[in-house]
Design brief:
Shape: elongated
Order of helices and strands: HEHHHEEEEHEEH
Structural class: alpha+beta
Number of helices: 6
Number of domains: 2
Number of strands: 7
Largest sheet: 4 strands, antiparallel
Low-confidence stretches: none
Helix content: 40-55%
Length: 183
């Protein structure tokens, strides 16, 4: 997918940043899903140790296989949904505007757009040991538009992005001021 067509890029507009959530923030969910994958194996071993004579029954093995298959398919679906939501959350910053694409499951997404000249304040937050270690955090963007506050979570290098965004805001205001003065 070409982002220029997706965001209907203006003739003078160029994409400065394309930012996804920090990869490290996906690891806890991955570990959780891996632990869930072990549950049927543990249940089977527990049932075999408790009911040894039942474990050799073909009906028992077929039933256990059926429920294990349903469980693994469900876990796979939930993992895929989480991964799609994680991967398709995207922040696009151009020299004229900011687009925040937020995926809410497989078939739902919200796209919020903000003109950079409407930005009033940009704040970055990094909380916690792992966030400080891997340098990811939250970016708060205060605006003068219809949506008064944008909150973008778990992005890498929030302090650097805050500085770059403030620089782009200044450049955009100068551009719009020059355009109005020329008209």
């Amino acid at each position: 997918m070409d982002l220029r067509n997706f965001i209907h890029q203006k003739s003078y507009e160029r994409i400065e940043f394309q930012i996804r959530k920090h990869t490290v923030t996906f690891i806890p969910a991955l570990l959780f899903f891996l632990i869930l994958m072990v549950v049927p194996v543990a249940v089977r071993m527990l049932l075999i140790s408790v009911w040894t004579d039942m474990a050799i029954s073909s009906q028992f093995n077929a039933t256990l296989l059926l429920f294990s298959s349903m469980y693994y398919l469900s876990i796979g679906l939930f993992f895929f949904t989480y991964f799609v939501t994680f991967y398709l959350d995207l922040l696009i910053i151009t020299n004229d505007r900011l687009l925040h694409i937020e995926q809410h499951g497989l078939f739902s997404r919200t796209i919020a757009e903000l003109d950079l000249c409407n930005v009033q304040d940009v704040t970055s937050e990094v909380h916690g040991f792992f966030a400080s270690l891997f340098n990811y955090g939250t970016l708060h963007i205060q605006t003068a538009g219809a949506v008064d506050k944008f909150i973008i979570r778990q992005i890498p290098y929030p302090e650097k992005l805050r500085q770059a965004l403030l620089t782009l805001v200044d450049e955009d205001r100068k551009y719009h001021h020059q355009t109005k003065a020329a008209a």
